[in-house]
């Protein structure tokens, strides 16, 4: 289901005619926030939510602007807070995890497909403002 929404979103953003026709079916919303992390690095996170009006389902994903690069992550299971995982991170052999709770978040990296075995890139990221 999530893959279908992500694929449809990619097509919609690339094709304005399809976007107009699909606007009756999908509701797309984007929110952008800036965080300041413990190493004085700024991270901008763009949250995108799609809602299928006919099926009453939704999917969330985000992309992070980090060191003049953007990385896409999809919503993942989390015991607490919100967690997003992307399997293409700072290089092709590493993925990224963005984990947030309240007004704070952390960014992690993992090797291969093992998103449970992470190491910290940025921690103690504090929400600065919404764009």
From TrEMBL:
UniProt xrefs under Gene3D superfamilies: 2.40.128.200
Enumerate the UniProt keywords alphabetically: Lipoprotein, Membrane, Palmitate, Signal
According to the entry, every stretch annotated as the C-type lysozyme inhibitor domain falls at 35-115
Signal sequence extent: 1-19
Q: Which InterPro entries match?
A: MliC, MliC_sf
Does Lipoprotein appear among the keywords?
yes
Tree of life domain: Bacteria
Query: Does the UniProt entry include the keyword Transmembrane helix?
Result: no
Any transmembrane segments, and where?
Answer: none
The record's section on Pfam families has: MliC
What this protein is called in its record is Membrane-bound inhibitor of C-type lysozyme
């Amino acid at each position: 289901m999530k893959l279908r929404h992500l694929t449809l979103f990619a097509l919609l953003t690339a094709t304005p005619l399809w976007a107009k026709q699909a606007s009756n079916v999908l509701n797309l919303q984007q929110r952008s926030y800036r965080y300041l992390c413990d190493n004085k690095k700024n991270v901008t996170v763009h949250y995108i939510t799609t809602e299928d009006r006919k099926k009453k389902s939704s999917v969330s994903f985000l992309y992070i602007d980090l060191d003049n690069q953007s990385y896409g992550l999809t919503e993942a299971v989390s015991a607490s807070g919100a967690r997003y995982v992307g399997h293409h991170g700072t290089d092709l052999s590493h993925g990224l995890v963005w984990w947030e709770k309240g007004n704070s978040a952390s960014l992690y990296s993992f090797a291969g497909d093992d998103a449970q075995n992470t190491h910290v890139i940025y921690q103690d990221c504090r929400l600065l403002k919404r764009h």
